[in-house]
Write a sequence for this structure.
C-alpha cells in the first residue's frame, strides 16, 4: 500500500512540475503553458481544438454540465429551423453588405461585456430605464436592424420562442465565419433581460485609450485571462474605426504636441492624410487609467458626422485566411490603430501572445474560437430568469 501511495505521489509531483497547477474559479487545474517556455515564436501548445473539429465538438460536449440550463440545439423541438434561419439570413446580409459582420461581432462584445449576454444592449429606453445605446461607447454600434429583422422572421415561424440573446450570439458566430474566422459550437437557451444597464456600459466598456492595466482589469473581472483577452482583440483585424478614436496619437499624444512614439512613422503619415486634425479628437493624456471618463469615446454616431473612417483590415491585407493574424503582425510593427490596441505589446504577459498569434494562425483561430465561446456564455440568463422578448428593442408588456 505504502509503495502504491509513494508511486502516486511521485507521479503527481512529476505532472505538477511539468505542467504546473493553477487555481481557477475554485478548482485546481493544470496550468496552460505559456509560449515563452517553448522554442521560438511558434507555439505548439496543445489547445483544446488542436486536432480537428470533432475534437472541438467532443470537448464541448464533455464540458456541458447537465444541470446548466444552456443546451446544444435548445430549439430542436420548439423551433427546429431557428438556427438555419439565422445562418441563412446572415449569409444574405453579408452578401449584400460585408460590413455587417464586424458590426455584429462588436455588438455581441458590447452586449456580453455588460451584465452578460442578455440582449440588454438592444433595448430602447422606456419609462423605467435608459438605453445602453445612448452610452458613449455604444453610440457607433451598428447591426440592430439586422438582429431585429431576423427576430421578426423567427417570430412569424415560432412566436415567443427564440430569445434575442440567442439570435445575437448565433448571428455573431455566423458573422465570424463569414469574415474568415473560425467556427465554434454554441449552446442555446439564453433569456433576454428585462432592463438595460446604461451607466454600467459607460463605466465598464474600456476606452480606446485604455491602458493595459485597465484592459486586463476589466476583462479579468469577467474571468478572461491575458491569453483570452489578447485573442479577442483579433476581432480588430476587420471592420472600421473612426479617426476620433486614435487621432490624438497622430497630433498631440499625452499633451506633448507630438505623435505617439509607439506609432510607426510611416503609418502616422498615411493616417494623417486620412484623418486631418479635428478639434473633436479626445483630449489626449487626460483620464488615461482606471477612471477614464466615458466622454473619451466622444460623440461619434453611426451616422459618422465629419469623422473619417479607417479600414482596420487594410483591405484584407494578408488574405482572408489571415483573419486575426494580420492584426498581431501589425501590432508587432507598431502599427496598432488605437492606443488600447498597441497596449497589448506593452507588457510581457500580453506581448508574448501577440507574438504567438502573429506567427501561428492556427493557434490564434483555436484560441479565438474558445474565447468567443466563453464570451457568448458569459453571465447568461437561463431557465426562469429573464424573458423571451417578441421585439428585441422592447421588454414584454407587463400584464
Ligand atoms: C479594450 C477593448 C476594446 C476597445 C477599447 C475597443 C474599441 C473599439 C472602437 C473604438 C472601435 C471603432 C468603433 C467606430 O469607430 O465606430 C471598435 C471597433 C470594433 N471592435 Fe472593438 N474594442 C475593444 C475590444 C473588442 C473586442 C473584445 C471585440 C470582439 C470580440 C471587438 C470587436 C470590434 C469590431 C469587430 C470592430 C469593428 C466594428 C465595425 O466595423 O462596425 N472589440 N472597437
Amino acid at each position: 500500500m505504502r509503495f502504491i501511495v509513494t508511486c502516486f505521489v511521485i507521479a503527481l509531483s512529476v505532472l505538477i512540475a511539468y505542467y504546473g497547477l493553477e487555481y481557477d474559479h475554485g478548482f485546481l487545474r493544470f496550468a496552460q503553458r505559456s509560449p515563452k517556455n517553448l522554442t521560438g515564436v511558434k507555439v505548439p501548445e496543445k489547445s483544446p481544438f488542436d486536432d480537428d473539429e470533432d475534437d472541438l465538438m467532443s470537448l464541448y460536449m464533455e464540458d456541458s454540465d447537465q444541470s446548466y440550463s444552456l443546451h446544444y440545439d435548445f430549439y430542436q423541438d420548439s423551433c427546429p429551423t431557428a438556427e438555419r434561419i439565422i445562418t441563412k439570413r446572415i449569409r444574405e446580409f453579408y452578401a449584400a453588405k460585408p460590413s455587417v459582420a464586424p458590426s455584429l461581432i462588436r455588438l455581441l462584445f458590447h452586449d456580453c461585456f455588460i451584465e452578460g449576454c442578455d440582449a440588454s444592449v438592444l433595448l430602447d429606453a422606456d419609462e423605467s430605464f435608459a438605453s445602453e445605446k445612448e452610452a458613449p461607447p455604444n453610440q457607433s454600434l451598428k447591426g440592430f436592424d439586422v438582429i431585429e429583422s431576423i427576430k421578426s422572421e423567427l417570430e412569424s415561424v415560432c412566436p415567443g420562442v427564440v430569445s434575442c440573446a440567442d439570435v445575437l450570439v448565433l448571428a455573431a458566430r455566423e458573422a465570424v465565419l463569414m469574415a474568415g474566422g473560425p467556427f465554434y459550437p454554441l449552446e442555446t437557451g439564453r433569456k433576454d433581460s428585462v432592463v438595460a444597464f446604461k451607466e454600467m456600459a459607460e463605466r465598464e466598456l474600456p476606452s480606446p485609450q485604455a491602458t493595459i492595466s485597465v484592459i486586463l482589469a476589466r476583462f479579468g473581472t469577467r474571468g478572461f485571462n491575458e491569453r483570452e483577452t489578447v485573442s479577442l482583440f483579433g476581432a480588430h483585424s476587420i471592420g472600421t474605426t473612426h479617426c476620433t478614436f486614435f487621432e490624438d496619437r497622430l497630433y498631440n499624444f499625452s499633451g506633448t504636441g507630438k505623435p505617439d512614439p509607439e506609432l510607426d512613422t510611416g503609418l502616422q503619415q498615411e493616417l494623417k492624410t486620412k484623418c486631418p486634425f479635428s478639434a473633436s479628437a479626445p483630449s489626449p493624456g487626460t483620464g488615461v487609467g482606471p477612471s477614464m471618463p466615458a466622454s473619451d469615446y466622444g460623440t461619434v454616431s453611426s451616422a459618422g458626422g465629419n469623422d473619417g473612417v479607417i479600414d482596420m483590415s487594410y483591405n484584407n491585407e494578408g488574405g482572408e485566411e489571415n483573419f486575426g493574424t494580420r492584426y498581431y503582425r501589425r501590432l508587432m510593427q507598431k502599427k496598432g490603430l488605437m492606443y488600447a490596441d498597441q497596449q497589448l505589446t506593452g507588457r510581457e504577459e500580453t506581448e508574448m501572445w501577440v507574438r504567438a498569434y502573429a506567427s501561428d494562425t492556427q493557434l490564434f483561430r483555436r484560441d479565438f474560437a474558445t474565447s468567443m465561446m466563453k464570451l457568448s456564455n458569459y453571465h447568461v440568463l437561463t431557465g426562469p430568469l429573464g424573458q423571451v422578448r417578441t421585439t428585441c428593442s422592447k421588454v414584454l408588456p407587463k400584464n
